[in-house]
Every structure is written in structure tokens, then in C-alpha cells.
Input
Amino acid sequence: QVQLVESGGGSVQAGGSLRLSCAASGWTATSGYMGWLRQAPGKEREVVAYRYGITGIIYYADSVKGRFTISRDIAKNTAYLQMNSLEPEDTAMYYCAADGVLRGRVLTAADFGYWGQGTQVTVSS
Output
């Protein structure tokens, strides 16, 4: 049984930083995709960043490139999302997600089969 547990959300002012963590059980960080998605009120869930397996294929949404960094600690089976230069537009519920099916295209939210419960990030101006 796969469990993904997020932590690290909170409230910060614009320009601040947060680091989200995703502790996985029943899933190995190198097994397939692990990533972060977010959903703001009234908006669709969107992919923020993900990393594939041991090859390290990494994707970032254009809106976060240069500000967010996805990483992982294989020994701890934990994924991270370092978020710098946060903007009010980054306010959303952030979800850790995983999936094992290799796809030859950019993933969408529907491609992820396993989800955490989410952690709220609020950025004030």
C-alpha cells in the first residue's frame, strides 16, 4: 500500500521560501515518477514539478522554473520541493504524487495514480 505524506507547508510573505517534504512508504523514490502538483481555489490541479526514477528526468512548470527545485533523499525515501522567491500566485494546496508508468510525454495530473493528502501554502503580498 502506497502512502505519501507531505509536510512543510505554511504561510510566508512574498519573496520568502518554504521546503515541502514527501515521505513515501510502499513506494521507492526511484520506482517511477515522484512529483508535486498544486491546486488553487477555483482552479484545476496543475503539475508543478516531477522527477522520473533513477535517470533523473526532471520537469518544471514554466511558472516555477528558476524558483523551485525538486530533489530527493533515496536513503530516506523522501522527495522535496524547495520553493524560493514565492509569489502570491503560488498560494495553493500542494500535493505529492507518484506513478510507475513511464510516459514519453509531459505528465498531467491525471497520470499520477498515488497522492498524498496535501499541504497548504499561502503567500501574502
Notes: The longest strand covers residues 18-25.
